[in-house]
Design a protein that fits this description.
2 copies of one chain form a homodimer. With about 200 residues, the first copy, chain A, is an all-alpha fold. The longest helix of chain A has 28 residues.
Chain lengths: ~200, ~200
């Protein structure tokens, strides 16, 4: 007897099957029928759990972002200053690239379609803006503890997120073009050299 | 009597029409038939000038990159040090965002499709790698003239390009999320603070 309720299990199977279909054939090319076939569920079961294919994608996005949040939190454990927190987050970049691999192209595909649909657009853009707020808070703490120069935390956070977005995009589209984990570490170090108070 | 040879004019009309169709409906959704109708040319004329829709896209990409190259060259005129050259290039970021607007989504769409086609992929990735070499040369000159610390020019250039890629992506997908021209100026300034030799 399984400990997972039947409905939950079906829901998980749909999500896993969708993630595989999207990664392999793209978001556009993967229909609900194909996802159902791959998951071994009926269309009725699919629509019992999700109103649309779009809803499945947004749920997958939420799951990945939760993993990323947990990784970002774990990476910072034991760091005593803000520059140390940044260095540790940069060190885990390799894992983020591995996690994003095979997923970003479908994410971009979804983004291109969603940009003219205000409701979906808000759902996609909200977590991204949360990361900006997350880094602004860290930078604010660094200014307060005196390790960072008195920069505008919002603006410095936009720069950090811009660098991160660019790194992820290149890491996926041009994986052999550079050691992206290394470039991330170097990039964060150069930014820190620009942001830190001079000793 | 026109000074432009007839064939050249037809070719230009096809390129203009394709740029409009791609920007409005996306790369995928714009067929050769639609481009021909929009340009007022026959399919025979189209295929006389371009073997495929893909070839039209690559020619448009080349044209835009030529404009960008010219803008980057113009921006640097009169700058006497490498940090000045960077500041001036950052100042022109607003124009680059305007130029990219409406074009990047179709570029991403093309990129997503092209990434499994080695020949097209090389054509797309080559100019991007040239920009990395372009910035590496400038940073090398900065190290040589003593305005920049003795960093590895290739790595520092990867960081600069990563920041640029991230800024352009956000500028197009989240145009109202920040003043991206301003973020570019701030980002380059923070990088320069990290790269410049201390006075």
């Amino acid at each position: 007897m399984s400990l997972v309720p039947r409905g939950e299990e079906t829901r998980s199977r749909i999500l896993e099957a969708a993630a595989e279909c999207f990664a392999r054939h793209g978001y556009d090319a993967s229909g609900v029928a194909e996802i159902c076939q791959h998951a071994g569920v009926t269309k009725g079961a699919f629509y019992h759990h999700f109103p649309t294919k779009q809803a499945v994608f947004l749920e997958l996005l939420n799951q990945w972002l939760k993993v990323l949040d947990a990784q970002l939190a774990t990476a910072q454990v034991g760091a005593t200053t803000v520059p140390e927190r940044f260095v540790r987050m940069a060190d885990m970049a390799q894992h983020v690239f591995q996690m994003a691999d095979g997923r970003l192209p479908m994410f971009l595909e979804f983004l291109i379609e969603a940009r003219h649909d205000p409701a979906v657009w808000q759902a996609v853009i909200a977590p991204y803006r949360q990361y900006r707020a997350f880094f602004a808070d860290i930078i604010r703490a660094g200014v307060a503890e005196g390790t960072l120069q008195p920069v505008d935390p919002e603006i410095a956070a936009q720069v950090v997120v811009s660098l991160a977005v660019g790194l992820v995009l290149q890491g996926v589209f041009d994986p052999t073009g550079a050691d992206w984990g290394q470039v991330t570490q170097n990039g964060i170090q150069i930014l820190l050299d620009g942001l830190e108070t001079q000793e």
